[in-house]
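If you are new to this repository, start here. Below is one unmodified record pulled from the training split, so you can see the exact layout before writing a loader.
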Amino acid sequence: MTTSPEKTDLSQALAEQRELLLITVRGLTDAQAARRTTASELTLGGIVKHLAQGEEAWTQIMTEGDGELPDGMLDMGQYRMAEGETLPALLERYAAAARATDEAVAGLPDLGRSVLLPTTPWSPPEPEYWSARRILLHLIRETAQHAGHADIVREALDGANTTARR
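And here is the target side for that same chain:
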C-alpha cells in the first residue's frame, strides 16, 4: 500500500511534535514528572498521560467512526500522574498510542473519510462529523499545545528547555 504525500506530511508533523515533548521529559525522575511547578495543575507526567489517552481515544474515533465515546475520554484523571505510575510506563503507553495512530492513518484509504464524533457534554445537539484529516490535525494541534505547556513546566522545574536540549 502506498501512502499519500498528505498522509506522510501530516504524520511527520505529528511525529515532530511528539519528539519535542519527548525531549522535554528526557532525564526526569518519577518524582520530577509528578511535580507541579506552576500555578497550573499540569505536571509533565500528567501531560504525557493525557496525550497518550488522547491519541488512544481519537484513533479509536477515527477508525471506528461509530460515534461511541472511547473509554476514559472524559476521565479527568488522565491529566494527573497517579500514585504508583511511573514516567517510563507512561512513555511506553504514549509510544504504543503513537504507533497505533500512525498505523491507523497509514491504513486509511482517504483522509476525507467522514467520522461521526461521540456525544460529549460540549457537543452540539445535532450529530457532528469530522474528516479523518481534521482529527489528525486536531492531534497535531493538541500535541503542539501540550508540548509547549510541558516546556514551561520543565523550565520552572529545573531551568531546562526544549530548544537548548535539541
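Two things worth knowing about this chain: The chain is about 60% helix and 5% strand. The beta strands are 114-116, 129-131.
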